[in-house]
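Revision sheet: C-alpha cells.
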Amino acid sequence: MRIDLHTHSTASDGTDSPAGLVRRAAEAGLDVVALTDHDTVAGHAEAARALPPGLTLVPGCELSCRYGDISLHMLAYLFDPQEPALARERELLRDDRVPRARAMVSRLRELGVPIRWERVRELAGPDAAIGRPHIATAMVEAGVIASVSDAFTEEWIGDGGRAHASKHELDAFEAVRLVHGAGGVAVFAHPLAASRGRTVPQTAIVELAEAGLDGIEVDHTDHDEPTRALLRGLAGELGLLVTGSSDYHGSRKSVPLGRYTTDPDAYAGLLDRAAGTPLTAA
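Predicted:
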C-alpha cells in the first residue's frame, strides 16, 4: 500500500481542487490519501464525491497551534467534523486568517512590495482558508522573489520576519484534547522542520506524548535524514505512530504526491485509535 497522509487543496493553500487532488492521487499510484487543509474541512465533501475506485480518503485537517511562543501544526484525522468544541476552534482559527493576511500585505507594501490585497484574495479563492502561500504567490507574480519558499524568511513573511503577523493559534495540548474529544487522532506535523523557522525542543514532544499525542510526522521533505533518524528513535521510545507524507500543495510547491509515505502498520494503528472511518468510492 502507498499511503500519503498530508495534502492540501484549494480549500486552503493548495492549487488542486479537492476533486482534482483525489484524481491526481489515484494517478500517482496511491492507495490512501488524507486531505488535511489548514484549519478547515471544507474540501472533504467534494473529494469524497470524486473518489476514484480503489482510492481511500482519510478526512483530516492541519490545525494551527502553538507551544509557548513557537508556532506548530497538528494533523487531525478521522474526527467528527460536527463536534462543537473542535468546530468552534476551527472557525476561530479560520476567521483570524483574513486580518492576519491583510496585515502582512500592508507591511509588505510599506516595504515597497507592489502587491494588492485584492489579488491575494483572488489567489485564495472565495471559500479558501487564506494563508501565507497565497501572499507568497502574489510576491512571485510581482517579481519580488523567485519562488514561494523564498517568502518564508526573516526578510519577508517567515516567522519573525519583517512583514510577519501573528494569528490566533490553538494551544498544542488543547489541540490534542479537542481532537480526541471529537473521536480523532492527533499527529505532530513536521516537528523539527528548522527551515520553516523555530522548532520546539524535543522535550515538547515528550510532554505532548504524555498528554496523549498519537504520532509524529517523521518522513517529510523538510526533515533531513539525521532528523528522521532522531525522530524515529524518539517515536519508538515514546510509543508514537510514525507517519510519512508529501505535504502536497499542487504547483505551489515542487514536492509530488507520494514523495514520502506512511507504513501500512502505522496506518492501521491510526485507524485503531480513531472513532471515524476512511471513505471509499460508492
